Automatic annotation (TrEMBL):
Parts of the chain that traverse the membrane: none
Any coiled-coil regions, as ranges: none
Gene3D superfamilies in the record: Phosphoglycerate mutase-like
InterPro entries: His_Pase_superF_clade-1 (IPR013078), His_PPase_superfam (IPR029033)
Domain of life: Bacteria
Name of the protein in its database record: Phosphohistidine phosphatase SixA
Species annotation: Runella defluvii
Length: 173
């Protein structure tokens, strides 16, 4: 192979490596669904079980690769229907500090991820990905938020955008 052929081959390999590093992924952040009571490890109420089904219905065709939640029953039950529908396991993370789950998901890259958090961690998690939600606080009666962070990584760097949605029946105050 002549010198020009080698240069072209190296350029093609470099282009392939650059393009293979490009991707778009989504990170879905939600609070656990409605709790049965205020006990420390409460299960979901019947409304919460319905919301868990609504979450699974909303995300079942989104090519979810990983599902994270805390050790609490309400988080596990919120994610369980989605785990069943997607065939993905439930991965436990510690709710504090929120930087740990953010760093874990950032290392994953190239995958669509669901994080089930708590009223006092969801917004911190969203902000940890470098986007700014319009909400200043998740109220104790607020269960229907779905934060969708889109990560587009290209040759020139990465860009993150935030879409704020709701899912399931609206929670009454």
């Amino acid at each position: 192979m002549n010198k020009l052929g080698k240069i072209n081959s190296l350029l093609m390999v470099g282009l392939w490596l650059s393009l293979s590093a490009c991707y778009t992924s989504k990170i879905y952040v939600v609070r656990h669904a409605e709790r049965l009571d205020q006990s420390a490890d409460t299960p979901l109420s019947s409304a919460g079980l319905q919301r868990a089904q609504a979450l699974a219905d909303s995300l079942k065709n989104k090519n979810i690769d990983r599902i994270f939640g805390t050790k609490y029953q309400r988080n596990r039950q919120t994610a369980q229907v989605l785990c069943d529908v997607t065939g993905k396991g439930y991965e436990v993370y510690e709710p504090h500090p929120t930087e740990v789950i953010v760093k874990t998901v950032e290392k994953i890259g190239k995958q669509n991820v669901v994080i089930v958090g708590h009223s006092d961690t969801v917004l911190e998690i969203v902000k940890g990905f470098g986007v700014t939600p319009t909400k200043a606080k998740i109220e104790s009666s607020d269960y229907d938020n779905l934060f969708v962070i889109t990560v587009k990584k290209g040759v020139g760097g990465s860009r993150k955008t935030l879409e704020e949605k709701t899912y399931g029946a609206q929670t009454l105050p």
